[in-house]
Amino acid sequence: MKIKNHLNVLTALVTGVILTGCGEKYTTEVKEELTFVHNEEGATLGYSNTSGVTLLTLDRYAFKDLNKNGTLDEYEDWRLPVAQRAKDLAKKMSLEDIAGLMLYSSHQSLPGSSRGFGSSTYDGKPFPESGAKASDLSDEQKKFLTDDHLRHVLITSVESPAVAAQWNNNAQAYAEGLYLGIPVNTSSDPRHGSDSYAEFNAGAGGDISMWPGTLGIAASFDPALMKQFGEIGSTEYRALGIATALSPQIDLATEPRWSRFDGTMGEDPDLATDLARAYVDGFQSTDGGDWGMESVNAMVKHWPGGGPEEGGRDGHFGYGAYAVYPGKNISDHMKPFTEGAFKLDGPTKMAAAVMPYYTISDGEGEKVANGYNTYLITDILRGKYGYEGVLCTDWGITRDMTSVSKFEGKPFGVENLTVAERHYKAIAAGMDQFGGNNDMGPVLEAYKLGVAELGETAMRARFEESAVRLLTNIFRVGLFENPYLDVAETTAIVGNSEYMKAGYDAQLRSIVMLKNHNKTLPLKEKMKVYVPQRYVAPTTNWWGITTEPKTVDAFNMEVVAKFFDVVSTPEEADFALVGIHSPDGGVGYDSADLEKGGNGYVPINLQYGDYTADTAREVSLAGGSPLEDFTNRTYKGKSVSTINTTDMDLVNDTKKKMGDKPVIVSVKVAKPMVFAEIEPSAASILVHMGVQDQALMEILTGAAEPSALLPFQMPADMLTVEAQLEDVPRDMKPYTDADGNSYDFAYGLNWNGVIDDARVKKYR
User: What is the CA radius of gyration of the chain?
Assistant: First the structure.
């Protein structure tokens, strides 16, 4: 039906003017370059005055003419069900439009860096030389939005919340001016932590509220706290323009050596299931209800569970390509998905999207990475469990690789296929979207391969099927109606004092007290404290960037000085406070071993002292790569040193210097560790998964009482680590300290001793 264009579109120079059309059920408000339309008991619309979009009116309500054809199409009618709108738009989309929708961008920082990871240009120049604003679109962003029809963008670090909000408005206006007016769906990896240390949380450490990581929240054993995080996190995300969270990571952490252990919710399937459900409910619901303008799509990861990596080696690299199930226990790993994220308490019902992990799940269908595995994707996830949401590959699985030890493509099991053939195989397996791919060319080539095999009609239907799923997630969070932000509101919302306090309170609830000999804690304020500095060894990160060795303060000494009288020698002190990290025992692969004639595979160490894997498997459970001429990835009999052995030395040397005076040890843990090397030297031990120093000081002085519990076991030694099965939870012998306490799952102390409350009874 042709309907009239609304004439009350004001110029971009008018600010804050509100008009009501004669007899209409809406008001129109113009703020600088944006127009907002408020429908009575209906949707609020927002559009850019520079995009060419105008208003249509029908039944006295206003609608956006996104494709600028003067007709109210079904996808433009906010009164219709989302499913109907998505199907209508999918049919209108060209093959190129759908191919672009199936892309998820590589990591984008705002502004783009000048070189290295995430680098970009502005009018052909690096950002510092370009004269561009931090919120401007880069050349690469303009290209992938226009030439490649891409609409899903992953952002990492941002200069400020205001910059993120203005960039969002610029990107949305740019996309709105293109054919069909499909908005940008911006996403983020976790960003509420206190620092950024890896590719998968590169946006953390900014002005947003600071919480412990999900492993720290898991230590509260409180799904309600996890839900509160989701509710606050989603509000801050939407204020930044982020409508999809590439989280939560609900892999069951049954393998203690895995480098991504600290991103999980622990090793217990029941606890992880309850926490996963709470996280997704918190992010996806608006005001505790259905989808809305504060909802964020949750992309749970990594199906069918990335935790059981053989030997703990991670799937970001070819040496960690295999997940194994020696305990025949894949069901526990699926449980946080099938019983948690897919069975929500709230009305959004199930997580909006799922990301499979890089790994080949050994013995589960074809010997290919999960994103190519028809059995795990179509037969199990889609078929057995009836999952109908978006399936997005992890980043870069279709790219080539040249070495098992380089951070590059991860086409495990399909290395012999072309890039286009890999795309087609993933689509045929049931995937909808390709993470980290900015180029629609291979998707179009995959379409041709499908036409040759199945015919044009079937392949077009298959592409529309994915398009409907992808569009559904954009429609139901309201982006088609109003994707624009008020920059001042963003600044007021993100990291506000209320949200900061909630995050800080959660930090207090995440600190586990493992030892408190003779009730050393709590301490009196203004006692004299000796705080030795910590040596940080040189390291090399995933991108090959090295750091120089240095000696640093283990804590923010200005914070420590607010609570205690800091002295410079052990002799002056009443007690010592030592801050260390859990052992950094390597990644399980060493090129030096290869150069010496070995296979390159070495143990991952969870103790500070050197370790020789005399009891490791003679033959690995899985193995094989076109880049290797062997399949046995055993490391039996090999030795490995830990990078931060000096942390152990720091604790024990400090104890020698302090004599009978107490040594308090604070450990930032990234994964389980062997405490036998340091526990005898400590009067009290606190462990945390990333908190501000003030939270530690408040626990030490009794301003807050420790209440957290271990969401995983601390092993007695490396023998039990080697003996445990990668896919089985809670199967290690836990460490027992000098006070007779076992550092087992659900263990923790408060001022009265071992905690034995309802949480312990429920989950232990």
Answer: 27
CA 471 to chain centre: 22
Q: In what order do the strands lie in the sheet with 297-303?
A: 107-110, 152-158, 185-188, 242-245, 297-303, 353-356, 390-391
8-state DSSP, 476: T
Our answer to whether residue 268 is catalytic in this structure is yes
Cα–Cα dist 5/65, whole Å = 9
Cβ neighbour number for residue 234 with a 10 Å cutoff? 24
Q: Active site residue: 222, 314, 394, 584, which one?
A: 394
Beta bridge partners of residue 576, listed in sequence order: 530, 663
Count of C-beta atoms within a 10 Å radius of residue 597: 6
Between CA 179 and CA 68 the distance in angstroms is: 8
Instruction: Name the 3-class secondary structure at 514.
Output: strand
The strand pairing partners of 434, in sequence order, are 103
pTM: 0.95
Q: Give burial (CB, 10 Å; 0-12/13-18/19+) of 679.
A: buried
Question: 737 catalytic, yes or no?
Answer: no
Q: List, in order, residues 6 or more apart from 290 with CB less than 8 Å away.
A: 346, 347, 348
The three-state secondary structure class of 340 is helix
The answer to whether the peptide bond before residue 672 is cis (omega within 30 degrees of 0) is no
How far is it, in rounded angstroms, from Cα 31 to Cα 63?
18
CA proximity to 570, closest of 646, 655, 647, 650: 655
User: SS3 for 690?
Assistant: coil
Measured at the alpha carbon of residue 222, what is the angle toward residues 218 and 224, in degrees to the nearest 5? 120
Q: Is residue 555 classed as helix, strand or coil in its secondary structure?
A: coil
Looking at 65, 136, 148, 268, which residue is catalytic? 268
DSSP 3-state of 45:
strand
Report the C-alpha gap between 33 and 45 in whole angstroms: 14
Residue 482 CA to residue 245 CA, distance in Å, equals: 19
Give CA–CA dist 272/275, Å, rounded: 5
In angstroms, what CA-CA distances link 75 with 58, 467, 545? 14, 13, 47
CA distances (Å), origin 404, targets 309, 342, 413 = 15, 34, 13
- DSSP letter at 60? T
DSSP 263: G
Return the C-alpha torsion angle 584, 360, 281, 468, nearest 10.
140
Segment 265-280, tens digit of pLDDT: 999 999 999 999 999 9
Q: What are the 10-residue block averages of pLDDT along the chain, 764 residues in total?
A: 33 42 84 95 96 96 97 98 98 98 94 81 94 96 97 94 97 97 95 61 69 96 98 97 97 98 98 98 92 96 97 98 98 98 97 98 98 98 97 97 96 98 98 97 98 98 98 98 97 95 96 98 96 91 78 96 97 98 97 95 98 98 97 98 97 98 98 98 97 96 98 98 98 98 98 98 96
C-alpha distance from residue 158 to each of 120, 154, 206, 505, 666 (Å): 14, 12, 8, 25, 31
Residue with tokens 């008020």: 486
**CA of 496: how far to CAs of 235, 236, 489, 603, in Å?**
11, 9, 11, 45
Strand-strand pairing, 26-31 and 17-20: antiparallel
DSSP string, 84-132: HHHHHHHHHS-HHHHHHHTEEPPEEEESPBSSSTTB--BTTB-HHHH--
The length of the chain, given as a count of residues: 764
pLDDT (0 to 100) of residue 8 = 36
- Phi/psi region, residue 596 (left: phi>0; alpha: psi -120 to 50; beta: rest), is alpha
